[in-house]
Amino acid sequence: MSADLSVNIAGVEFKNPVITASGTFGFGEEYNKFYSISLLGGISCKGTTLYPREGNPPVRIAETPMGILNSVGLQNPGVDEFIDRHLPFLSQHDAVIIANIAGSTEDEYVEAVRRLNGTCVDMVELNISCPNVKEGGVAFGTKPESVEKITSAVKKVCEQPLMVKLTPNVTDITETALAAEAAGADAVSLINTLTGMRIDIKTGRPVLHNNIGGMSGPAVFPVALRMVWQVANKVSIPVVGMGGISTWQNAVEMLLAGASAIQVGTACFNDVFAPLKIIDGLRKYLDENGYSSVSELTGGVEIW
Amino acid sequence: MAVYQDDFPIVSAEKLSDTVFDFKVSCPQLASDAFPGQFIHVICSAEKLLRRPISICEIDKTNSTIRFVFEQRGEGTRLLSGKKAGDTLNILGPLGKGFTALYAYDSAVVVGGGIGVPPLLEVAKSFNGACDAILGFRNSEAAILIDDFFDVCGDVSVTTDDGSLGTHGFVTDVLRKRLENDPPQVIAACGPTIMLKNVAALAKMYNVDCYVSLEERMGCGVGACLVCACRTRDENGDIKHSHVCSDGPVFNAEEVAF
What we know:
- The structure holds two protein chains of two kinds.
- By secondary structure, chain A is α/β, with parallel strands linked by helices.
- In chain A, about 30% of the residues lie in helices and about 20% in strands.
- Chain A has eight helices and 16 strands.
- The longest helix of chain A is centred in the C-terminal third of the chain and has 15 residues, at about 275-290.
- Chain B folds into two domains: about 5-95, Elongation Factor Tu (Ef-tu), domain 3, CATH 2.40.30.10; about 100-215, 3-Layer(aba) Sandwich (Rossmann fold).
- Chain B is built from six helices and 16 strands.
- The chains are: A alpha/beta, B alpha/beta.
- The interface between A and B is medium-sized, with 34 and 30 residues.
């Protein structure tokens, strides 16, 4: 008998632990041309704000050794259009729908999340870690007090289980994780991108028009793994691990470090089938090693 | 519209100039589905995470091949240029909106600058001779595909920045005369942004429809990550960010906020 790939995170049932990461997978429409998005455990939608945003001027992407920097700046159609235009498509498919919500003020976060009430969104991921917008975003995510304040404000109005997405650009990520938990978060997801920079030596200007951007891709995986392990050892709510996962082996490592599920992002730019290959690889690994359920891997690392 | 990601064999890999390479890949699915002006997203090497977007130069439905011509600009395209016939390439495509709006016209002028010239070849072919070409290059060494355009176009004008081949000057000098004397129904242009801006301005001045193919640094290539933003105008004239990979690369020049 094949191992059970399903996981339950904060009461939400995922048929497998592979979720596509916010900002890399749109609202699922584009990749559904390659395969049915119903094969995925879940989809974390593009970061959405109360009002539409045009994002940052280009250039918005720079390549780094086995990684990228991006500075999209939360370009999105706004929460109302997300509900009207994109949710109907997502609701026709069998993947957990995670709305990723960002904002410039606490009121914007609260109002955007409130508008999701009564919709078919299964879970809310609170994006307090976007490094690419001038106001809000990461400003809410770097201090435990502000994490606690915004999490509890949103939690009061949020009907769905609430997952808080943490920034790695802090001294001790366990402090912000514990603050989110204390404020009522049902899960945490980490890591968002690491702030970085490239300079074009021909022009003397930063490659990114925003000067700095968020780094992702295989290069950040060891950092992400370490942070997930640290957080999973401190909090008692589920941890969703992400950051540079591009193979099923990376996914196994992330689960062993303490993640209950994983998100795959930048890997899709290289291989649109990466999430499916990870699901298949996980299944084979579990079967070959005698596991009956993927959740047996979570936190299974044996520390020296 | 179908889109594919797979490994395809390179059937020929030639060098057109010091920095420009000409590859043909056997890929029946892409060759049957692609339109002029669409692009492919190519893995240059296992060392490079991001694919490189490259416009399709020719679609050969009979032999099931796609031809693309690219310039070696950085490390990724340098690695790609080292591939040989018989190697395989991982290609995602065909992607983007091509020059399909041109199907509504009977005759055209294509205006290309430098590495913007290749995607116009398939466009020119689609007019069955009712198309002229104005092609600009830095100098004679950088000139590419001129014979290919002579094979499919009525008239071909070449300009170089230094006068070492054809007319000394810019494509817009030749285009201006053409618009004064014998304006075409439509213009299709691809090349440096400043060239596109000037071509678009001339087209507007002479009231000729114009479509331009834009370039921007790209991530996913399929419209999901939103990094390849370009400035366009909406129906009210307000500036917005469209995306080269999914809204383009071909835009009506009137929409583009250069």
